[in-house]
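In this supplementary section we document a worked example of the pipeline. Step one takes a protein sequence of length 147 as its only input; no multiple sequence alignment statistics are reported here. Step two produces a three-dimensional model, which step three serialises into structure tokens for compact storage. The input and output of this example are shown verbatim.
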Amino acid sequence: MLIVLEGVDGVGKTTLATLLSKTMNAGIIHATRETPNNWGWFSEIMDLARDRNIIADRFFWGQFVYQNPEERNLNPEQLHELEHRLNQEGGQMIYVTADPVDINTRLGARAETLSLPLDTLRTRYQFCVDTADCPVIIYNTSTGEVK
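The serialised model returned by step three reads:
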């Protein structure tokens, strides 16, 4: 099973991934600018998740939030195909969010800054949630609320 955790830096994805990996005996992958982030790479991880539990600490949405269109290795149609496949294969998309004050506090504790304004990133993630071709669970790490 593949569980995908998406959300802005500082919302608690890595903490959640670590907890889930222990509970589910799952491996963790982390998509960054340095990982291939192309159709083949995402597809291979999804293939591996048929036989084992994998937690993705950020996956295919990240490039649509953090990168300009010319920097992306997927087009919107491929994104929707991957979302559809995630749904068909029993995977789960979880959008992890938090109160902006908590996000800034967490980032400050790590001496990190966001590459784009927080409101911009949150708006872009919300667009992904709203247009997803798969069900999305929304988990707020500040309140513990799940939608």
